[in-house]
Amino acid sequence: MNNLFAVFLFLLPIFILLIRERRWSKRLPPGSLGLPIVGQSLRLLRAMKANAGEKWFEEKIKKYGPVLKLNLFGKPTIFIYGQAANKFIFSSDGSTTVYQQTKSTSMIFGERSLFGLTGQDHKRVRQALLSFLRPESLKEYVGKMDEEVNKHFEMHWQGKQELTVMPLMKTLTFNIICSLLVGLERGTQRDEHVQSFQEMMGGVWSVPINLPFTRYNRSLRATARVRTMLKDLISQKKQKGGSGSPRQDLITYLLNIGHDSNEQEITEEEIIHNAVLVMIAGHDTTSILLTFLIQVLANNPTIYARVLQGIHIIQPRGDSPIGDLTVRHSVCVGMSGVRNLLDIFLVVFASWACLAGDVYAHGF
Fold first, then answer.
1. DSSP readout, 313-360?
2. CB 99, CB 113: distance < 8 Å
3. What is the pLDDT of residues 307-320, one digit of tens each?
4. 362 φ/ψ sector (left φ>0, alpha ψ -120 to 50, else beta)
């Protein structure tokens, strides 16, 4: 009798869970959650590797409609499609949706990154990052970027008849990120962390299974190495004190916040986590955009000739320094070209948002 009672107590929660799932399934959109944790992640990743991610979602839309449920990267997910869906997501005031990464990706970005912060902390860190990255401050970083680009072309482009552009753009982007954002100059230390950075990036789009042989586990271990490197850089910069320009790189700038003003300081943990966030967020988007830019220039001689003419117009004469007018003109021309490319090509494949409460769409 006691054994039967024990079995009953064991099965009762499962029975209640099944009844509850059946009751809620009538309200949820059609679709399949698949296996726990894995879900449809592997199929989507294979499609993305074959550059067929959009086609994969289009097939799902044809089968289930514009609103469907999935299990991606360890989380039950609702996929919505169409103009009304875009308006709902992008016009949200935060009361219905919150831009937030999954738990698996927050392990890489960090809990004190912008994706993990809320309220006043989010506002404080966001303002600090935007202040460093605003277009008005670009003139202070043009010299570094120009130096990295010139060295890149000398090493990888000159004298070559044929090139594979995408890997080279990733190399260029990584070098600019290290110099401009992290303050890690060319040398053995930068070269040692290329592999760690690539492995860290690989975990963002991976099945979040933390076992020794998985990509996600390699990403977490690489993230720990990158954070250690950033922590060492911060210690070195603190020992140097106020030497150099406070805007020479992102880490130096964040360290100086609050020293000469009444602004609240950015903690060391926040600096490390947001440096990782900016490194990851800026790497693929920039390298993909640059690759598309070169593709357009290579396939359209007329556009190439007009861009080249514009460069000659805004280029300083001789050895004269880059002036404010030249920088502003360059930024305007560059941003115009970027907007045109973004209208044609998809740079960011997907973004995540968490629902802050119950939401109804298309009857679900």
1. HHSPSTTPPPPHHHHHHHHHHHHHHHHHHHHHS--------EESS---
2. no
3. 777 665 555 544 44
4. left
